Amino acid sequence: MGSEKMIEICIDMEEGEPLGATPNDKLVITKIQAGTISEGKLRIGDQVKKVNGQNCKDCNDFFRALRFAAPCAKIMVNRDEKKAEELEARVHIPEDRAKIIQRREGYVYELATLVWVQNGPKLGLGIKHFQNRVLVSRVDPGSLAEKCLVLGDHLCDVDGIPVSDKDVARDLLVKNIQEKGKVTFVVERPDSIDAKQWAKQALATNLMQPPSVQMNEDVKGIASQYRQALPGLKPPAKSAMSTGPSARRVSIVEQTQTHEIGHDHEGKALRKVK
Question: Could you tell me which CATH number the domain at 93-204 has?
Fold first, then answer.
């Protein structure tokens, strides 16, 4: 690639000081925390190759090398300038839209923009809702969706409107494409192994859950027992509701009656209370 090159970045650091840059399992930097020593030095999309001359094959190698890197970490990275600019634009989520995100460990967040092209590629996007989340369940090869979304992405909003129902998300998507020719999403993307596994299971689930609270397993069991018992239940021999010409009008007369109420002192005399 023409814009890709290996560069060495020197970062002054004190022992135990956090770098503030988060790599994924391929050692590509996906997040840089504001106000940390890596800000302005490392860039999103940089792929770490070495730290102080030591090769890094995975995150364990990287963090182990950093632990002994003070007073200066010389980090060799593979950087694609064009890709870095695109990624930085995508991870910059406007303040008003960032407020709705409940950031979770193991996920990366970005702003995905889908631009409609007249007589161009088809949309090629499938969505489903699962546990109050709208998930990307289908991305067709060569489609518009493939340029900015991946399977398992959670669409947090559509053009600034939070969504938890696939029908609402679809209607907003169509409306924005028709009116503006483009649509943007704040996307929560699985990044860790656990997060990717959860997304895989969610997509494999055929249960199209409505956006509501799911019943607990014990409640489901009781409901299931009642459903099975219903066909076997016999109706009463005589209806409590009389019908036809012989039906009499019933009037309720208020009377003072004495009712015996069972209590803990059954059979014992109660003391009078003055």
Answer: 2.30.42.10
Enter the tokens of residue 19. Answer: 């770098």
Rounded to an integer, what distance in angstroms lies between the CA atom of residue 178 and that of residue 57? 47
Contact of 75 with 9, CB cutoff 8 Å: yes
Handedness of CA 252, 257, 261, 267 (dihedral sign): negative
99 phi, psi to nearest 5 deg: -60, -35
Q: How far apart are CA 182 and CA 71, in angstroms?
A: 48
Q: Which amino acid would we find at residue 118?
A: Q
Identity (one letter) of the amino acid at 24? Answer: N
pLDDT tens digit string along 130-176? 988 999 999 999 999 998 999 999 999 999 999 999 999 999 999 99
Condensed to tens digits (0 to 9), the pLDDT of residues 171-196 reads 999 999 999 999 999 999 998 899 99
pTM for the full predicted model: 0.54
Domain boundaries, the chain: 4-87, 93-204
Q: Which residues of 178-211 are buried (b: 16+ CB within 10 A; e: fewer)?
A: eeeeebbbbbbbbbeeebbebbeebbeeeeeeeb
Superfamily of domain 4-87 in the CATH hierarchy: PDZ domain (2.30.42.10)
Between CA 32 and CA 39 the distance in angstroms is 6
Extended strands (E) in the chain: 4-12, 21-23, 29-32, 47-51, 54-55, 72-80, 107-115, 125-130, 133-139, 154-158, 161-162, 182-190
H or E stretch covering 59: helix 59-67
The most distant pair of C-alpha atoms in the chain lies apart, rounded to whole Å, by: 101
The tokens describing 84, both together, are 């870095």
